[in-house]
Every structure is written in structure tokens, then in C-alpha cells.
Design a protein that fits this description.
385 residues, mainly beta, 11-stranded mixed sheet, 7-stranded antiparallel sheet, globular
Length: 385
């Protein structure tokens, strides 16, 4: 520490000095002791990449880390139960709001058509959400693990057992007066929609609680890597390069695939639906392409129920194969789900629970025996670890 006595005598002036957009008026200053410190000046809590080193400091008062994406959200959003919405994925589907889904599930239904279930943590301001299609019972079990309000438009009799359970809190468009049929979709099937006000009205009418039930909020679902040290998968010697994850073999009608964008660090979603030329998967509400930070693939035991092709998937299971993709790489994982409301957990080949990166997550449910392609390499269930 060194001190230098400096005499500052500045004449009082009415002149105004301008610099960097600030107005400064000079005044007479007294004699002061100027302290010159040998220690470096303190800087903001940012690393060389601009990431927030002190991740526990919220950007604004009342914000917390999302239990769904690990992004900053308000306490109100984090403490309000999410919604899950059944959305068709055909060439006639007119999807509004889907790019805002924090988690998107995709799974086959009859005829190798896929149906999507979108989970929204913040659903406070939708003026058009959907279109909404019918339930398949296995989706309800994936909704259970988030304690979400499950939104659908009817469904086959196979759903009756789970939908009629006392703990199932669903909103059925067939029984609600708050859904409407849009005339701008060009068809009479994929045209049912709902908005935030309608969802709230149904929740109130049905007597559901907006707050999490049975201590659910005390459980951490996904495990997330710190933003300052994201999970690059470089720590795994068997990690594979994954610039393109092609799900066409398992979803032959959707023919969806994901391409890694190194500029954004996200996987952009594309699909070539039967009867279309294909291209980016776009939300009609805002023109945005669907993109994800994490992709989880779950190989799952399934059965064909009848001659119409209705399927059943075993959602509660243990030690099943899967894959995890993020930041342009992928690793083999196993997954397990212990009960209806428990979280699906994902583990690396050493038995450690994996850490996702902050952001949206895509969950692809794959029928046992099906395959997908990663950078021209075919991968099937129980691929060598």
C-alpha cells in the first residue's frame, strides 16, 4: 500500500463537460489523500467466456433456478404446477406455442405416427395453445412425474383406467367449454385449441390446486451442470461425436432429426412428415424453429394391444438402455423410473447420475429393437457400452 499526497485545486466553473453520455459539473475539491492500491481492481463475477461465475446470485429479486430447465424464473413460476399438452405431429397439425415447451416428449402411437407431449412451466400468457389431440395412457405417466395438469382432447377406452384415477388431474377438451375449433387450420381434425384463461377456468372448476402436491416440489428432478462448467461429455472416453441425431428409423412417419448448431450450442429440430417436403420444425405462433440443449433417448419395452395398432409402453421400469446428447456429443446411459410419480433417472455407464445442461430437453421414447442414426452410425438397443 502506497500513499501519495495530492493537492487538488480546481476552479469552480459553470462549464459542463460531457463524456460517454454523462453530464459532469466540476466543483472545488479539498486536499485529499489519494490511496493507490497495488492489488488489482475488483471486476464483475464473470469468467473469460462471459458466464456468471457466482451462479447463486439471481439477475433480479425474486428469481430462482427453474426445477425444469435450470434457467432463471420467478418464484411464482417455479412454485406453480406445470401443464402437459397432447399435440399431434402430422402434416395437418397446426402447432401454436410448441417452441416454448421446456420439455418435449415424442413417442409412437398407432400406425407409426408420433404424438408429442409438451411440458410448459410458465403457461401464464398463451392466447392460443395446441392444437390439442387425444390421450394415450403412457403419456399420463410421464406427466405424473412432473405433477403437471394433463391436457388432452378425449382418447380411446384404454385411457379410462389412468384417467379415472382420483389422483389424475387432467383437463379434457371434450368435457370443457373453454376449448375452441379454429377455422384457419384447413382441416376438421387437428384444429382444437385452448388458452391460458381457459386452462385457469377449468382448474378452478375442477377444484385443482396450483401448488405442488405431496411434497413433490422438494424433489429435484433433472440434475444440472453448473453454467460456469457445462457438461461437455469430454470426461467420457467412450463419448461419440453427435452432429446429427436422426430418429427416422424409429419414427418412420415423422422422420425427425436434430442437427447440432455450434453457434448456439443447441440441437435444431427438423422433420419430413409423410406427404411433405420437410424442413425445420416451426412454431406457427412465432415462426421459431424448435431447438433443444439436451436430447434424451429411452429404449422402452412395448406391446401392441390390438389389431388397430394401439400401443402400450412400460413407463415404470429399471435399468433400460438409452442415450444422452448435448454440446455435439453423446454417451450411452441407462434409465429407471421407480413409481408413477418418481422422476425418470439417467445414469452413465459407471452408475453416476448424469448432469444435463441448462435449457430445454427433448425426450424420445424408442421401441425396444428400433434404431436411430448418429452421424451415419446406426445405434440400436443394448449397443455395446
Amino acid at each position: 500500500m502506497k500513499k501519495l499526497q495530492v493537492l487538488l485545486i480546481i476552479a469552480l466553473s459553470s462549464a459542463l463537460l460531457f463524456g460517454c453520455g454523462r453530464k459532469v459539473t466540476e466543483v472545488m475539491e479539498p486536499v485529499v489523500d489519494q490511496v493507490i492500491d497495488d492489488e488489482p481492481e475488483k471486476t464483475d463475477d464473470l469468467d473469460s467466456a462471459g458466464e456468471d461465475v457466482n451462479e447463486d446470485i439471481p439477475p433480479a429479486e425474486g428469481m430462482v433456478r427453474s426445477r425444469v430447465t435450470n434457467e432463471w424464473v420467478t418464484e411464482d413460476v417455479n412454485n406453480t404446477r406445470p401443464i402437459t399438452v397432447m399435440i399431434p405431429n402430422t402434416k395437418t397439425a397446426a402447432q401454436y406455442g410448441i417452441s416454448r415447451a421446456d420439455i418435449l416428449y415424442e413417442c409412437n402411437v398407432e400406425g407409426s405416427i408420433t404424438r408429442l407431449m409438451a411440458l410448459f412451466q410458465d403457461w401464464r400468457d398463451f392466447d392460443r395453445l395446441g392444437n390439442v389431440r387425444s390421450c394415450r395412457d403412457y403419456y399420463v405417466y410421464w406427466s405424473f412425474e412432473w405433477d403437471a395438469f394433463y391436457i388432452h382432447y378425449g382418447g380411446p377406452f384404454y385411457i379410462d383406467e389412468v384417467i379415472n384415477r382420483s389422483d389424475t388431474e387432467d383437463i379434457d377438451g371434450l368435457k370443457s367449454g373453454n376449448f375452441w375449433r379454429a377455422k384457419d387450420t384447413g382441416n376438421s381434425t387437428d384444429n382444437a385449441y385452448v388458452d391460458t384463461n381457459g386452462i385457469k377456468a377449468d382448474i378452478n372448476k375442477l377444484g385443482y390446486s396450483l401448488t405442488y402436491r405431496n411434497g413433490y416440489a422438494d424433489e429435484q428432478h433433472y440434475q444440472f451442470a453448473p453454467n460456469g462448467s457445462p457438461n461437455t461429455l469430454d470426461q467420457y472416453s467412450n463419448a461419440i461425436t453427435a452432429n446429427k441425431v436422426d430418429m427416422s428409423p424409429t419414427y418412420p412417419v415423422t422422420k425427425c432429426y436434430f442437427e447440432y448448431n455450434p453457434d448456439t450450442g443447441l440441437y435444431d429440430r427438423y422433420q419430413t412428415l409423410s406427404g411433405t417436403s420437410g424442413g425445420p420444425h416451426i412454431d406457427k405462433a412465432n415462426g421459431k424453429q424448435l431447438s433443444f440443449k439436451n436430447i434424451l433417448i429411452q429404449n422402452t419395452y412395448f406391446e401392441v394391444r390390438d389389431q388397430k395398432g394401439y400401443l402400450a409402453f412400460q413407463c415404470v421400469d429399471s435399468t433400460r438402455d438409452g442415450w444422452f446428447f448435448t454440446n455435439g456429443k453423446g454417451i450411452h446411459v441407462t434409465w429407471s423410473k421407480d413409481s408413477d410419480y418418481s422422476a425418470t433417472r439417467y445414469y452413465d455407464d459407471d452408475g453416476n447420475e448424469i448432469e444435463l445442461n441448462t435449457g430445454k430437453t427433448m425426450v424420445c421414447i424408442v421401441e425396444d429393437g428400433d434404431s436411430f442414426i448418429v452421424d451415419d452410425e446406426k445405434i440400436t438397443s443394448a449397443t455395446a457400452k
